[in-house]
Amino acid sequence: MTALFPSPKDVPPRWGNLTNGLTLGGLGLLVFGVVSGVPGSDSSGQKLAALLLLVAAGFAWVGWVLVRNAGSEAALAACLVVIAAAGGALAVFSPIALVFPGVASMAAASRWPLAPSVGVGGAGMVALLIATAANGNNFAIVSGGLAAVFSGIIVGLTRRQAIEHADQMTRLELASDRADVERTRAELLGERNHLARELHDVLAHTLAALSLQLEAFATIVDAEPETSPKIRQQLERTRQLVREGLEEARGAVRALRDDAEPLEERLSRLAQQHQAAFDMAGVVRPLAPEAVLALYRVSQEALTNVVKHAPGGSASLSLTFSVDRVTVTIENDAPASNGTGSALGRSGGGFGLRGIAERVALLGGEVEAGAVPGGWRVSATVPVPEAAPARAPGNEDAPAG
Prior knowledge:
Blueprint: H1 17-37, H2 44-67, H3 73-90, H4 99-111, H5 114-135, H6 140-223, H7 229-256, H8 263-273, E1 277-281, H9 289-309, E2 315-321, E3 325-333, H10 342-345, H11 352-361, E4 366-372, E5 375-383
Parallel strand pairs: 1-2
Antiparallel strand pairs: 2-3, 3-5, 4-5
Helix pairs in contact: 1-2, 2-3, 3-4, 3-5, 4-5, 4-6, 5-6, 6-7, 7-9, 8-9, 9-11
């Protein structure tokens, strides 16, 4: 039986509740027709035989409805054979019972290849021949049985071919869509690589050259003992900004080339630059370069706002990994009331948080910003694909600030 019938994965789609209900309703009409077609002058023995055959065919029909979605091919085959055989024998008492072997042959042909379908129909024909010979009936009914079985097989094979054709077309469409997605992805990667090259060749080289010029200028300033300490401080601050800008440019190039540095390392270094405490919780999960860059920009913007609006206050940066998302949270104390840093607070166009919120929203995440008791909090959450494997975390509890 295992070699004759295919595995459940090769069978047509599952039958729905509506189809099952219609099938059982058809059984009820067929039973009524058979009972009405049994001649009233038959002996009690013949009526009992007809009743037993009808009960067997009916129970097998119900079993067919119940098991055809269960994937048990052997049980299904047994039900169809009983339907065909009982219906074939029952046809000598009521010709309408030929519907039983016809339906059984159709069900087999729509699910299996030709050979097992002919076997199911053959069981009905054998039972019909035996019952006809035993009751001395007119063998003309055999031709009706052949027609019912043949028609059922033809209809079943046609349905099976239609299902296979639809399945093949669906697979072809999926393959075509997958090819389009891969082609679009390749084009996007090519454009990103082009942008990465341009960014590296223009911005990174320019910042590198500026850094060299500042180093040379710093050497000259150091050689002049009369140079004001404030000038030295400003020069050092400018050199630091250029170094940070150069590192940012390199990070952007890595992100465009899908070679982004792990988020926890970038945030740890960012927290050190802003003298903020850094902590991490959860099992570290790899993130897409876009997510890494978006969460880094959120942290960068929030810590910059701390410098602008609450200078001198303490700040903390936390990174939290959960099963399906990753969150960065930046908190800081309330700004001092002495007006320090008011000029910085008035700088900028006020579009920083809006811009990072739009960036995170493109990834399916969200940004929340608002006052909390004693300070201000900015939180950004980005979903993590379920397929992304976790990796062993580093020293998650060690503060970097």
